[in-house]
Structure formats: C-alpha cells, structure tokens
Amino acid sequence: MRIGLFKNLKQVPRKLDLKRRWYRFSRSPLSIVGLVIAVGSVLLALLAPYVAPYPKHAGLFTNFKEDFQSPSLKYPFGTDDLGRDVLSRTIFGFRYSLMMVAVVLSLVIPPGVVLGLIAGYYRGTWVDTVVMRVSDIFIAVPPLVLALAIASVLIPSTFNAMMAVSLMWWPWYTRLTYSTASSLRNEYFVQAAEVMGASSVHIVFREILPNCLGPILTKVTLDVGWVILLGSALSFVGLGAQPPTPDLGTMVAGGGVYMPDFWWISIFPALAICIIILGFNLLGDGVRDIFVEAR
Amino acid sequence: MKLSSYIARRIVYVIFTLIGLSILVFVIARVLPGDPARMAAGPRAPEWVVEQLRIQLRLDKPLYEQYFYWLGDVIRGDLGYSIISRRSLTIDVLEYLPTSLELILLAAIFEVVGAFTLGVVAGRYSYKWPDNLVRVFSYVGISIPAFVWAIILMLLFAWMLPLFPPQGMLSYGVNAPPRITGMTTLDSLITGRFDAFFNVLWHMVLPALALCIGGMMQDARIIRAGMVENQDKDYITMASSQGLPERLIMFKYLLKPSVIPAITVMGMDIAALLANAFLVERVYNWPGFSKFGITAMLNKDLNAIVALVLVIGVIYAIMNIAVDAMVAYLDPRIRFMERGE
Known about the structure:
Chain A is mostly helical. Helix content of chain A is about 70%, strand content about 0%.
C-alpha cells in the first residue's frame, strides 16, 4: 500500500510543464501585449544602431541648422535643442534603460536571494534576526530617497546610478525569499532530507530554492519596470546618466526647459518610459498567472 | 495584546531601525571619497582654513566618535550645520518641510477619495464597462511615473487648456500670508486671507494630482478586488436574500472588510508620496523640501543629505505606525497574531 503511494507520487510531473504554462499565460490577451512590448523593446535596444534613423545623434552631435524642428517625416519625433533627432535618441534610450535593468538585477538577485534563503533556513536563530533587521533598515525610507542619497555622494554617472539602485534593492529579494523559504522549512520534503542526513547546502539550494523560483521570477519581471522608473528618476534629477548620454530620464528633464512650445523633446522619451514599464508590468502579471494556481 | 502595547512595541522597534538607518547613511556619507571640509571652504581656500574647518566640523576625529557627537546633537534637536546654506539644518528643514507636507496632504486626500470612488464603482459594476475602464486606467496609471504625469498634466491643463497655473505657489500680485505654521494654506486661513488660500490651492491641484494618480489607481484595484472577492460570501447572499437595501449591503457589509487590505497599501503609497514629491516639485517649481534636498544633493552637502534621509525616515515611520495601528484597530486578528512574517 505504502509503496504504491510512493509510486504514484513519482508519476507527478516534476518538470516545468511548459505547454500548460504557456496555455495559462496566453489565455490573457494583456499578457501577450506585455510579452510583445517586452520582446520589442529588448530587440530595439539590441538593434539600436541599425534601427535608429540617425545613429550619430545619440552621442556628441550638434546640428543647429535644424534645431527645434517639430515632428515631420524627416524627424518623426522632431529634433531637440542641439538639432538631434529625438526618435534616434529615444531608441538608444531603450538601450540604457534595459542595460541598467540587466546590471542592477544581476547584481541584486544572487545576494538578495541567498541571504533570504539562509535567513529562512535558520529561522528563529540570530542569523535570521541579523539579516532581517538589516534589511529593515534599507526599507525604512522610500526606495527613491535612499537611492538619491547614495547617488548624490557619488559622482553622477550611469554606473554610479546603477550602484546606488543595487545597494538599496537587495532587501526586497531577501524578504520575498525569506517568506517563502521560512514557510517551506517545515514541509515534509525538507524534513525528510534532513532526516536522511543531507547537508544544509543541499537542502537550501536543491530542496528549498527550486520551490522559491516562481515568486522570484514573478518579482523579476515586475521589477524591470520599477528599476527603469527609479533609474530614469535619478537621471531626471541629474544624479544619473549625464548628457550627452541618450538616457530617457535625462532627455525628459532636459526637454522640460523648452515646454510647452517644444513639447516633443520631453514627451516622446517620457512616453517611451511609460511603454516599457507598461509592457513589463503586463508581462509580470502574466508570469504571476503561470505560478499562482487558482485565481 | 492590547492596542496600546502593540503600538508601543512597534515604536521601540522603529527607533532601532531608525538608528540603524542613521548609521548606514552616516557611514555612506563619510566613507566615500571627497573631503567635506575642502568642499565647504571652496577650492581656493588656504590649507590652514580647511584644517581649522575640519577641526570645527569634527572631521579629524575617528568615524565612530563623529557619529556619537552627531547622534547627541540630533537628540538635542540639532541636525547639524549645512555647508551650502551656512546655517543650522534644523532651520532649513523647518522652513521647507511644511510646504511639501501640505502638497502631500492634498495629494493624499485626492488619493483616498479617488481610490474609494473608483474602487467601489468598479466593484459594484464588476466585469462590466466601468470595471474595465478602471482596469485599463489602473494599468496606465501605474505604468506612468509621477514625474511623467507631472509633465503630461502640465502640458494638457496648464498650456493647452490653461485651467491651472503651470508653476510656482502664488500668482504675481498675491502677497504671501505671514508665516506661522509654514504651510501657506493654513497660514492664509489663520490670518483670514482667503484670496491667498484659494490661490495656493489652485496652484496645488496639478502637482497633487500628478503625485497621487499612480497610487490611486493601484488602491482602486485593491478595493475592487476585495469587493469582488467578498461578493460571493454567504453573508452577502443572506443579506440580499433578506431584502436589505443594496446601499446598505454595499457600504456596510461589502466595503468594510474590503478596506482593510487596501489601507495597508494605501498607507505605503501615501508614505511613498514623500519620495515622488522630489520629482514632481521639481517640475512644478514648488518651493518645498525637494528643492532644498536636490540642491543639497547636487552640491554634496553631506550633513544635509544625512538629515534629509533621517527626517524622511522619521515621517515614513510615523505614517507606517499610524497605518498599522489603524489596521489593528479595524482588524483584531492582526493584534492577536503571533509575530512572524
């Protein structure tokens, strides 16, 4: 009887059932829209030099003959105060925004998740207390304020803005992983592994971590929008990317001076920010639908 | 556990977190390269002046000693000396903070009223067109950063349709009321200057809207979700089968339990207005805390940056405790819950 029970357990598919998950994801048209926007903006970022009509305009370039041109066939988004094509600069802006996301998330996720796993596994001990109370400190002020403060003591640059955002972002992953890991701590399969004498490294990374991946992946997709928002806010204030870098936030701030007559200089990059964030938010909701069983 | 002891525990806990925060910011501000004394004195000042300033600012002492001196000052209500404005930061904070707080307060009012209205309408007509409209708006609302809202609203309602002033706090020709609380709206009411009051309010509408739209849409979604979830509960079926008026069911039986999860998120969103105000105030040239903060940040006024983060941390903490207390009051389950995440 018992043996039969275990046999049945073995037949439960352990792999990611891709077909079923894709079905669940594709049921919502909004998720598909999100996926299309997300893939589109990644492609646009990768192919920027080939897609942009005037790739030279992304850097140090001036053409005062054609400054402040309103949107036309030649310059679909108009030109800015230095005569640079706003469309080309916006396309290159996707590059900087997504690069920021890639760097920040790859810097933040490994330490954040590992700390959360450790704190969750040693739940109730001093390790738990130290890790979680330290992460509380980083959450004691709104993320933007701390990122601004950290960025302000550094020399303003794209790289330092990434560092500032990374430094205050890890606690969110720690808390997320902690909450999942600490509830998994008492599950039978973890206890079984313990009884069989598995090492704590094995339990944390092979037993607990795979079960935390769903929420983490969901958070990653939703965070893309947040990191872009935070990064563009930093450069909007002047503490992030510096001109002539075609960063979307910097462009919005730079064009603000010429409102309302030359509105296209800041409105188009601003809309670009919104579209990326919208795309990844929709995608994130779709990813959550995959992992959350019932809604 | 009683409500008061619950709150007391939260306060003790928050004080420790704030001390941790102050250590973190203090260390970041001091450890990173750059000589604050040299920056304060200017690049052409002779070495002995810089040296003297270093001693005066206690920069010659080891880091932990500097921290304890600083902490002692803060407890006595002295946030330190601003290298840029050349006066006590306590004065600076008291001058700029109220102007920001009144803007945030109006944004919070907009946010709560808007979120409830939209959430209740969407919940009442769930899966019909008002619900779908709110859903679309909520996706758009959340995806547009506050500073982009600020620019869009300014373009639409200050330039294309000149209903509101684009910038500033008072129109030309309107004298500021005498400074009593620092909040211009309150000052003008106290002194009976209703022209100034309405003028300031008129200037506040756009920035406050830009600040709150994102959070408002998110909160509306949560209220809507709560209402839809509770609609299927047995007690609602019973109430409606007993023939209770719909209005009563909606507001008394359906809205009340749906509000609790929304309040937590709403509190966090309102506290986050403090951060977004930094960007929105810049767009609308609002003479608030962010003007002071951003000047300090761009000029690397380290004392001011530390003070700024700490002040925002304290306000944030107070708001969080207030929200927690409110939720605990409304939902006794929380009060009796064992501690744990």
